[in-house]
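Most newcomers find our protein records easier to grasp once they have seen one. Read left to right, the backbone structure tokens trace the chain's path through space. Nothing more is needed to start thinking about how sequence determines fold. An example says more than a description, so a record of this kind follows:
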Amino acid sequence: MNEAQESIESLRQRVALSTSFGWLVVSGVTATLYREKGEQAINDVWRSLMSAEQTIRFRDALVKLGIQDDPPALAAAKYHYFSNSIGGLTMQYIEESPKKAWIRYMPPWGSFPGIAALAVPSTVRRTILSTWHPRNGELLGCPRLRWVATKFVAEGHPYDEGYFEEVDHELPLNERMKIVAVQQSPEFDPAKAPKLDPHAWPEARVLKGSHNYAADYALHAIEAVIRQLGEQQATNIVRMAMRFLAVQFIGQLAKQTGFAEKSAHAAAQLSATILRAFRNGVELSKKSDTVTDLSFTSFTPFEPIATQDMRAALFAFFEMGTRVISGRFTAKRAFDAATGVETWRFEDHQRWMQ
């Protein structure tokens, strides 16, 4: 079924899977980077990632969201409120005046699900919120715009919070962000929160936006690691991350997709469903009661980085996941450079293999 024929229920299910898997990749890769390379490395990667995302997204998104003509402080705050809400985060927005608006990033963190958030250094959230937000004024053509960060979850607060304010004079670069601790800030009123135009943003468009948000971050997080460490070290980080993710989450994903049966064919169906969630065309061929082949040509969202080594590193999730399902099963990959077809073979050896 192509995208145009996809029912809204099928779209909901596909996007739920693609966003779950996409954010697992982001968190797995960056958490493994922290484990292997330390605090400076994870901060460098998130700084690079945020700078690249802002350059790609910000200006065009203002128009898509219909906020390009709002006062700078409101446009900046609404951008983060809308874009992160579409991406699946829980956000709050409080408009104090045409020149001051608050935003809150409510828990849990999308980028570090579950207990992983407890292990992330507090400096990482400061890096993220100090890389993107202070530059909004420059991109909006308003050097009077400042970002003031007021609360951080990693430093003991119930949410990440801050406000954009337009002052009455031009600010030098080093004054476009401040950190000011506050004991009390304005209460969020959902009835007063801005809303997307329902005609321009029906549910299907919001869902597709959520999918794109997660898929793009999964790709761009790996690209940021490549920029910082080079391809060889980045490939090693990705391979380790994908193995860890499979051990931790393959059972959860099997239940989510309905392929929890312990068979090599079910493992192939699970893998195909994850690939299809990212709109890859996948063919399944059951060769026998014990062997199923999966083949595809596109490798969205990872196509731009899909060298042979990186393909193998990403495949490590599916290979390890199959081993976790049963020690009797294996998953092997082969790539035909002439045709661009990649084939994964899932086999039940009917004996213990590990």
Summary: The first strand starts at residue 90 and ends at 97.
